[in-house]
Amino acid sequence: MIIIKSYRSGWKKVWKNKKMWVLLYLLNFAFALLSAVPFSGFLSKSIGHSLANLNMLNSFDYTFISDLVREYESGLSVIMNLSVGIILLFFIFSIFWMGGILSILKNKENNYSFRQFWQGSTVYFWKLTRLTFYFSCFQIIIFGFFAFLFLRQGISPFEIKSEISIIKSIAILLPIYISFAIIIFMIQDYAKIHIVHDNRKLIFQSIKNAFQFVLKNFGKCFGLYLFNLVTFAAFFGIYWSLSNSFKSDSSPTIALLFIIGQSFIFSRIAVKILNLGSAMELYHTES
Amino acid sequence: MKYKLFLLFLLFTCLGFQSSKKAPLSAQIANYDIRVKLDINQKKLIAHTKLVWKNPSADTVSDLQFHLYYNAFKNSETTFFSEKGLPSLFKTSLKDDCNWSWVEIQNMTDKYGNNLASNMHYIQPDDDNKSDQTVLRVPLPKPVLPNESIEIEFDWIGKIPKTMIRTGHNMDFYFMAQWYPKVGVYEPAGMRYAEKGGWNCHQYHSSGEYYGEFGNYKVDMTVPENYMVGSSGTQPNPPKNNGDQTTTWSFEVNDVIDFAWGASPHFVESKMNWKGIKIRLLTYPEHVHFKERYFSILPQALEFFEDNFERYPYPSLTIIAPPFHGLYTGGMEYPTLITTLNSCLLPTGVRSTEILTVHEFVHQYFQQIVGTNEMEEAWMDEGITNFYEGVIMDKIYGEKSSTIDFMGIKAGNAESDRVSYFNMENPAIAPNSLNSWEFPGGSYHTIQYSKSAVWLNTLKKIVGEKTFKEAMKTYYFRWKFKHPSAKDFVNVINEVVAKNHPEEFGDGMNWFFQQVLYGTEICDYAISSISNNNKITSSGIFDNLEECEKSEFAKNEDDEEIFISTVVVQRLGNMTLPMEILVRFEDGKEFLEKWDGIATMTTFSYESTQKIECAEIDPYHKIPLDKNLLNNSFTSKPNLSGVRKYVNEFLFWMQNAMEGLGMLI
What we know:
- The complex is a heterodimer of chains A (287) and B (665).
- Chain A is an all-alpha fold and 287 residues long.
- Chain A is built from ten helices and no strands.
- Chain A has helices at residues 2-16, 18-47, 53-57, 62-71, 73-106, 114-152, 163-198, 203-216, 218-243, 251-286.
- Chain A is globular.
- By secondary structure, chain B is α+β, with helices and mostly antiparallel strands.
- Chain B contains 13 helices and 33 strands.
- In chain B, the strands form nine sheets. In chain B, strands 4-7-2-1-13-16-15 form a seven-stranded mixed β-sheet, with no helix packed on it. Chain B has a five-stranded mixed β-sheet with strand order 18-19-20-22-21, covered by helices on one side. Chain B has a four-stranded antiparallel β-sheet with strand order 5-6-3-10, with no helix packed on it.
- At the A-B interface, helix 2, helix 3, helix 4, helix 5 and helix 6 of A face helix 3, strand 24, helix 7, strand 33 and helix 13 of B.
């Protein structure tokens, strides 16, 4: 029942901090616009006067996409490089905001305040940056290990008898890998919570404590994480079925698709807060 | 009365006998009787061949020339490996086992007992590379007189390579292609490009496949008794167990240019009959579920050719679907035998099984029956085959989803050829007319397969489907079971097109072939601008110096403004094709303009009370050869609905990417 209690508490925290929720959404939207606006300008200039625009309204058009990418490659590659840069920039800012999010969620009594958000962002930035680096390394090591296990049997026709062995390997290794990756993500979440709670100088102490906490309460932590994952999957399912229920080939339907898409992003950010808020509740209850 | 009835019966019996004995389809020049034993321990073929070769010419022929394809894998200095380099997988295999392969003729005699082996020697007609032993010349002590035959017999051994270039072994799977000493094609003066009679027998190169002479094959294959054999031809008798743990499988086929076979202890056999043609599928247990896909697509391809050319002329067709470890033998055509590829890793929406089945089947007509020279003019089989593959696949699965239809991603077959050709780093790198081994920078495949299919598609649309169909049918019937060249193909197209369109194409299509077949020109036409300007009345000072006529917008009697509208069309590429331009006005009126497409620019001007709404080059999409279809149209006002849709999707995925990466925090 502690899982349900934490999950509900997480949702309460999302609602209580709806200003932060909106702020995070707006930040995401604003950063995405930084590359979407040039992309729009580029497309308008290059093919705005072409009847090929009508092909874009139908479904995926291989000829159109190929001609566009080939003939306007230089312009598109500038947009793509810009987009990658913006994603990386957003990533750094996300580390910064994470401290703010955790500070707000830590505060049980008071409502959201901008001051506290930015203060938290500043205080925990370097620790969360280092934590992100270490856990990214963990994830790479785990991925490399499973990739090694997968490739060890070989994938070339000279090495294996049938592709069935590749399928079997994937069927066995992929779920195990995903489970491991989830556990690492989970431990990282509790390490972040620990950093904000104890604010120790060395983050290894927080990582160690997070490991211990997760090992001690594995069923609860994993169950709660699965709950949050299912919530995310449910939102995605709703988005998928709604966006595929009509053809977006006119201005009103394109606008509708935009609203559905943005609603999904908005809910995705809610799930992010939910995940941290519910984990924090579990941490408080169990430690 | 009874006597008369008896005579009548006799007459019908004789007539029946006459009609059941079919006339040969081809000249049956190279006729083989091969007995071969597969030694799975030594990975060798131990064989005896009896060859009857008919001199098809008025020449006296003093030698024979043979392809010894397996010698291409004999050492690192062969022409094949010099051109291609050693494949990395092959290198590993060589490091472990010294797994070079070869074929050696041990003796050779004619029917008079003359020893032909004593003078035989390797020649290198293409590159003078002395390390290459893929062509053997056998001088004859007794030349073959015009229209006479020679009968020779020889023992030979072939060391089977690891699977590569569609032949070889891996684990216990064997596929034998280009496996036997095969006589070249003797071209008399006047045939194809021959100015005087001589052998056309090229070395084995890294690009290009083969060129074979028509003939009959009787082949006995002795394999371990637990092996099943799939082969060109039909079985006159069931397999015979030899009592020494081997079984001999016999196959026969007439009027073909080659013979291939495969063997494995794991083959699962499935059969179907299509209008009397026996179709045999040999696959591995893990791929048995692909059977329905083969048996669904193949009859449709057979039907297409029966409707558009003629009924498949052989009694059987065998499909070998190699296992994963036989991957490198898949996707190849041999007379009455095709190999395909399938993989449980691929979803059904990726139609590689169907594409390969159709492609290799089309080759039964375009190279196996119309016996072109793939070493010299590969487009004549690969290009035409790719074109018909597109026609059949697009007809069955739709032209936007016949190659891939998976999770919203769709691609058509013919459109994939176009994309593949134009996505080359340099689509103008080489003309189609080069020898296969002369293509620079790995461009052979895309130019010969994709570019050819694209220009054949363009040709079809320019001359019209009916004329194109008639031309291809004429070409097929004129050249089936013979060896045409590109000029023979061009001649037939010119003849039929000029006959059907004397006014438009009375001089034939040489102007087209010069650019697409013999040239490297690129086609790109564009509408560069549209302008709609008010017509201005006359203004200024005329006769009376004191009076100034002011300029005004011109109007008609109904007080409607008059516009001078102009469409500017440009030729950006160096290929010139006649073009149609559709100009549409705001009131819906349309004008279809014709332009010879030769100048680098042209304009079309109109005076009307309506403005031009849009203009489009090639409005009926006849020119898939146009490199950039996005600049083929122009609207006077931008229409941004499509742009908005894509920007919306871009924004959405950008936001998700940012949030997704944020999971690492």
